[in-house]
Design brief:
This protein has strands spanning about 5, 10-15, 20-25, 30-40, 45-50, 55-60, 65-70, 75-80, 90-100, 105, 110-115. It has no helices and 11 strands. About 0% of the residues lie in helices and about 55% in strands. A hairpin with a 4-residue loop joins β9 (about 90-100) and β10. Strands 2, 4, 5, 6, 9, 10 and 11 form a 7-stranded mixed β-sheet that branches. The chain has a 4-stranded antiparallel β-sheet with strand order 1-3-8-7, with no helix packed on it. The chain is mainly beta and about 120 residues long.
Length: about 120
């Protein structure tokens, strides 16, 4: 079974930075898009950023100019560089791969806590 392994979460002060990484633990083919979602307590899961294998990116308005998504297709790894973090960025961040057959693959989530 394919698993996505996330790393890089933690506790940081407001204004600080974190870098999340997500890699497929086993061989996975036909990836169409990689991305990050987040879910804060009591809220729905929401898209943070995504990137296609061709490099097209998409960002939620609330992270534009602060977060940068990138990927290494050969390593089947996606990254999320988060700068100028705010208290409202506190959430569990989930890695997501979308295959060309529209199969969804999710990571287990990593906690990001921003202290004000």
């Amino acid at each position: 079974q394919v698993q996505l392994v996330e790393s890089g979460g933690g506790v940081v002060q407001a204004g600080g930075s974190l870098r999340l990484s997500c890699a497929a633990s086993t061989t996975i083919f036909n990836i169409m898009r990689m991305g990050w979602y987040r879910q804060a307590p009591g809220k729905q899961r929401e898209l943070v950023a995504s990137i296609t294998t061709g490099g097209t990116t998409n960002y939620a308005d609330f992270v534009k100019g602060r977060f940068t998504i990138s990927r290494d297709n050969a390593k089947k790894t996606v990254y999320l560089q988060m700068n100028s973090l705010k208290a409202e960025d506190t959430a569990v961040y989930y890695c997501h791969f979308l295959r060309i057959d529209f199969t969804n693959v999710w990571g287990q989530g990593t906690q990001v806590t921003v202290s004000s």
